Amino acid sequence: MKLELDKNVCACGRAHVTTVDEVIVGHGVINKIPRLLEKYGSKKPFILMDCNTYQAAGKRVCQLLADHGIAYGSYIFPQTALEPDEAAVGSAIMHFDHSCDLVIGVGSGVINDIGKILSRTSGRKYIIVATAPSMDGYASATSSMSMDGLKTSLNSRCADVIIGDIDILRHAPEHMLKAGLGDMLAKYVSIAEWRIAHLITGEYYCETVADLVRTALKKCVDNAEGLLRRDDAAIEAVFEGLVIGGVAMAYAGVSRPASGVEHYFSHVWDMRGLEFGMLVDLHGIQCAVGTLLAARLYEHIRIYKPDEEKAKAFVQAFSYDTWKEELRAFLGKGAEAMIALEAKEGKYDSAKHAARYIVTQHNALACIVPKRYNECSFLRMQLAEMEGLTWPVRLALTLVHSPDVRYWCAQIRARFLRRRRRSMRIRSPKARWFTARITTRRFANCSRRCAHIRAAAKSSAFAWMRRRRPSCLSRRMGSCSLHIWTLRCIRWRW
Questions:
Q1: Nearest to 383 by CA among 263, 264, 292
Q2: In Å, what is the CA distance from 220 to each residue of 172, 175, 182?
Q3: Cys-Cys with 439: which of 245, 283, 446, 484 at CB 3.0–4.6 Å?
């Protein structure tokens, strides 16, 4: 796999570079590790794995090194569900053998993020042996971590070599294959938002980099049907697309080419999962659901007409103290880091409101996003290819966590994001009864298929939903604590 833009001066005026030396994709390419160690002059690598990735590829790597007489150190995380937090990074650093001169990560998302941090702190070269085409962080120079309860991206170190052995990748769990496609579908939104940011704020934008991502995305979509059949072409297309997404971020110097509001949905869900023990899923799965939600919001943008007077009234009525209280209630300890970020960036400074009001460019926004990107039916079709993703996961993520996520995800950074805030008003008794009835039936049907969701809905983690549910619905909804009805009761706030 060649990185064609590397070291070339682009029409945008920038030289696009990445620190990735090689991306090796194919059958049996794991056997090239000894040659790579010789290339970098490594005498003793350190192998980082967890108990799952050890079985998937780590055992093979260890045996390969032993067969070639290469000494190595290693650490295997004992957790079956490893979290990318301070404890995991600390454990990796404490177990690191300082006599080792290179780091080899064997895994996907979490292992790769921790491996990149370990590589940076130790000053060693880094090779990642991918075990699943599940996320786009293989070629990025940041690590997505949970720090102080806040999902954040930390500067780390980009991998020097990325190894994608098809013989290993094709045996990844089906859920991780779906996650990889989901992370790629998110590029529909991220590229569109990058162009919107360029229009509104003059933010840097490169059409060449955007086209690189679009080409990779098209290849993934064209091969999506064969992904769950584990066709080699589909596996390779998704993995290469994910790598290109990370390379594109390096080329652009920002995360825009591969990350938009759909990633913020995922971050907020992760933060609430850490704080309240609520249901979360793989990053790529959550990004897929977030992409569908973002597409729906774009559909509303096409018909919505901004009202300057309402916008000014909202600014005047805004209470910073109330905002902080609501944020703490919604995110718990993770809110403190976001409050500190707001104090630095001043998104809610009334003096800056005029600059953030975009009514003059509103008509141009709908023209930026091609119609195909906006149509939910297209994204639903792609999600349907992932078999069973659409309803159970949307229930667990969008409804369990409530539509408030749309509002609070806009608080993570000072980016221009579409946001909607729920209104607790339901317009008519008939609408209340109809929505509650549909909610109860759908949840009952889904819960029969998803026992873990049904059990979670009865847990104390959902007590806040029962407290906040309006009394007018209590009689109709009975024991159903998931208020799907809030999806019908949201309005625009710019």
A1: 292
A2: 17, 17, 10
A3: 484
Q: What is the pLDDT of residues 276-323, one digit of tens each?
A: 877 788 888 888 888 888 877 777 777 777 777 887 888 888 888 998
Closest C-alpha to 111, from 167, 124, 135, 94: 135
Nearest to 461 by CA among 401, 419, 385: 401
The count of C-alpha atoms lying within 13 angstroms of the C-alpha of 1, restricted to the half-sphere facing its C-beta, is: 24
| 54-76 pLDDT tens trace | 999 999 999 999 999 999 999 99
Six token digits for residue 304? 């919505």
Dmax (CA) of the chain: 76
Alpha-carbon distance of 381 to 100, in angstroms, equals 48
- Please give the sequence-ordered ranges of beta strands (E in DSSP) within 207-352, or none if there are none: none
Going from the N-terminus, what domains does the chain have, and what CATH number goes with each? Answer: 8-172 (3.40.50.1970), 179-306+358-420 (1.20.1090.10), 429-492 (no CATH)
Residue 172's nearest CA partner among 236, 223, 112, 230 is: 230
Report pLDDT digits (tens) over 185-234.
889 889 988 988 888 778 899 999 999 999 999 999 888 888 889 999 99
CA-based nearest residue to 220, from 240, 237, 239, 243 = 237
